[in-house]
Write a structure and sequence with these properties.
Order of helices and strands: EHHHEEEHEH
Shape: globular
Oligomer: single chain
Distance between the termini: 51 Å
Strand content: 15-25%
CATH architecture: 3-Layer(aba) Sandwich
CATH class: Alpha Beta
Number of domains: 1
Helix content: 25-40%
Largest sheet: 5 strands, mixed
Radius of gyration: 16 Å
Low-confidence stretches: none
CATH superfamily: Gcn5-related N-acetyltransferase (GNAT)
Mean pLDDT: 96
């Protein structure tokens, strides 16, 4: 299988958002909130689309897609924090049919190269405790766990 990683293009938009909703099911904070409180104005899927759409629209040069046989197989959205010399992987997702085949690793390598090319010294990424795959994947790339955060939510 040949994986090609390239910069995001507007024509990828619909497929990136589809992959995001598919891939974040079961490992998304907004879904956790809905599971306890019900839908919050809009469903978690729409909120996830909005978050990723924001990164794609406001910073398309820091987003990458992986293609397999001409199809978008996954994506990564990144952010650069120059004052902290830190690159942030904001969202990474791989379509279910391509998971476990090196697509995520290729996307992360592209993100890390993007960080290095922009003089970042550090890279960061977060995941939920329930995302067992990510907890195995990120340390395999060299990331070290530095802390855990507890999310609280309440109805007013």
């Amino acid at each position: 299988m040949q994986i090609t990683v390239r910069r995001y293009h507007r024509r990828d938009h619909a497929e990136v958002l589809r992959i995001a909703v598919e891939s974040f099911r079961g490992v998304c904070m907004d879904e956790n909130i809905e599971n306890q409180f019900g839908p919050i104005v809009q469903g978690w899927q729409e909120h996830k689309r909005e978050i990723i759409d924001y990164d794609l629209t406001s910073n398309p040069g820091s987003a990458f897609v992986a293609e397999v046989d001409g199809r978008v197989a996954g994506f990564v959205c990144t952010r650069l924090y120059h004052q902290r010399s830190t690159g942030h992987v904001a969202n990474l997702a791989v379509a279910s049919e391509y998971q476990g085949q090196g697509v995520g690793k290729a996307l992360m390598q592209a993100a890390l190269e993007h960080f290095r090319g922009n003089d970042m010294r550090y890279a960061r990424i977060e995941t939920l405790e329930q995302n067992v795959k990510a907890q195995k994947f990120y340390p395999g790339l060299g990331f070290k766990e530095v802390g855990r955060q507890i999310f609280y939510f309440m109805e007013l």
